[in-house]
Amino acid sequence: xxxxxxxxxxxxxxxxxxxxxxxxxxxxxxxxxxxxxxxxxxxxxxxxxxxxxxxxxxxxxxxxxxxxxxxxxxxxxxxxxxxxxxxxxxxxxxxxxxxxxxxxxxxxxxxxxxxxxxxxxxxxxxxxxxxxxxxxxxxxxxxxxxxxxxxxxxxxxxxxxxxxxxxxxxxxxxxxxxxxxxxxxxxxxxxx
Length: 192
Known about the structure:
By secondary structure, the protein is an alpha+beta fold.
């Protein structure tokens, strides 16, 4: 079965989808609605280009942990810096939360926010498991295994696990996860 890929950027917001065509198109529509809501709150003339369909993939995509320019989320840089700290530990970038999220599933919310922070501040899409563990612990969460915390966000379609099975590998946000993290971060910033 061929995998359908779709990549586009609108008003600085990037969409990358890969999977069955119907699923990718549904995710694109949800993402487009979220972008419209974000830009409606901060009106600016926006030209919506047609999405560019990329050739079917054999599933070996991804950037292999390579860095790239940060994605714009509609959240000001100073707001991001009030929610996250950046550090370098053992030669690798580490993004941590200044304040822990509250409520139910707070560790899972912290994981999603940290993936968002890595993407926005450090321009890292795919975060290695050990880096995520360090970031969660530095943010105030005691955990034994990241995969146990990641189970719910992965099941909800907010996070993807990449790399090898078992220990190791990487985590990254899906488009829905990115939108959810931006929403959760805005709510957290409003409460501060």
